[in-house]
TrEMBL record:
Its EC number is 5.1.1.7. Keywords: Amino-acid biosynthesis, Cytoplasm, Isomerase, Lysine biosynthesis. Catalyzes the stereoinversion of LL-2,6-diaminopimelate (L,L-DAP) to meso-diaminopimelate (meso-DAP), a precursor of L-lysine and an essential component of the bacterial peptidoglycan. This is Diaminopimelate epimerase. It is found in: Cytoplasm. It is an enzyme of class 5 (isomerase). It catalyses: (2S,6S)-2,6-diaminopimelate = meso-2,6-diaminopimelate. Pathway: Amino-acid biosynthesis; L-lysine biosynthesis via DAP pathway; DL-2,6-diaminopimelate from LL-2,6-diaminopimelate: step 1/1.
Length: 292
């Protein structure tokens, strides 16, 4: 009988993930294996993989082990590695709670973007301290078909280009990545957000994610959008001393983002585990071989 690999499936505002618990980091999750798992027809399907590893067992996280027992080894659906995933870290915490590794309240999670504090509330929502946004200087232009827009460069640990548009439909089908210039603004590629206003402190967005394509939600993207919207409107909590909150509607749900006067950003939203099962390890190895 072939070996089985346990998995779960979960999502945060429909940004969906294959969760692979692997405390001792023994599963060979090559980029091709990740892409095979995320394949929506031939695999389980997901925007990315949340590889759940003890920090002490992962070379990229062992230096965070004293602060955070668990490391979110996040991968995009194409197998590429990303620094941070805001929806992913909420779903990751939900998995830890369901598995009995943590209880309600605060839990520290190691990520490639540093240790994040996640709060699991009684009411079911999960809040994550996303850290501070960086706003690199310089003009960026984003293009889709005949449309082009100036975009704000926002770094949430991972790179974002935020474009305010007249109509979300102008972003087209987003089946291929929007182009951008200058290329030097994003040497490692970029997540692109398209934003329209819905009212004071309230926007709606679509996103094309680096390594995953158009997704139904992006947590780091929603934070980037909240900060870009505040600055566009002349609001900066560091200057006024007053927190700024933005409600961000995405195709898959709503996220609430607050930027505090110290620059720290908190994001609140749902995180759900929808299924669990077992993967045939032989199938995964074969599927990965065929893609490699
Ligand atoms: N969906 C995520 C972001 C995942 C990483 C991104 N695609 C990248 O490559 O930077 C989120 O919720 O933040």
């Amino acid at each position: 009988m072939s070996t089985r690999i346990a998995f779960l499936k979960g999502h945060g505002t429909e940004n969906d993930f294959v969760i692979v618990p692997d405390p001792e980091n023994v599963i060979d999750l090559s980029p091709a294996a990740v892409a095979a798992l995320c394949d929506r027809r031939a695999g389980i399907g997901g925007d990315g993989v949340l590889h759940v590893v003890r920090s002490a067992a992962h070379p990229e996280a062992e230096d965070m082990a004293a602060e955070a027992e668990w490391f979110m080894d996040y991968r995009n659906g194409d197998g590429s590695v990303a620094e941070m995933c805001g929806n992913g870290v909420r779903v990751f915490a939900r998995y830890l709670q369901r598995a009995g590794h943590v209880a309600e309240g605060d839990v520290a999670v190691a990520t490639r973007g540093g240790v994040k504090t996640v709060h699991i509330a009684k009411d079911g929502d999960i809040t994550v301290g996303m850290g501070k946004a960086l706003l690199p200087e310089g003009e960026v232009t984003v293009r889709v078909g005949e449309h082009s827009w100036p975009a704000r460069n926002v770094n949430m640990g991972n790179p974002h280009a935020v474009a305010f548009v007249a109509d979300l439909a102008h972003a087209g089908d987003l089946l291929s990545p929007p182009s951008y210039s200058p290329a030097s603004a994003y040497p490692d590629g970029v997540n692109v957000e398209f934003v329209v206003d819905r009212g004071p402190g309230h926007v709606a967005m679509r996103v094309h994610e680096r390594g995953s394509g158009e997704t139904r939600s992006c947590g780091t993207g929603a934070c980037a959008v909240a900060v870009a919207t505040a600055r566009r409107d002349g609001a900066d909590p560091a200057v006024t001393g007053t927190p700024v909150t933005c409600t961000v509607d995405l195709p898959g749900g709503t996220l609430v983002i607050t930027e505090r006067p110290d620059g720290e950003i908190e994001m609140t939203g749902p995180a759900v585990i929808v299924a669990e099962g077992e993967i045939d390890a032989e199938w995964l190895a074969d599927a990965a071989r065929r893609r490699a």
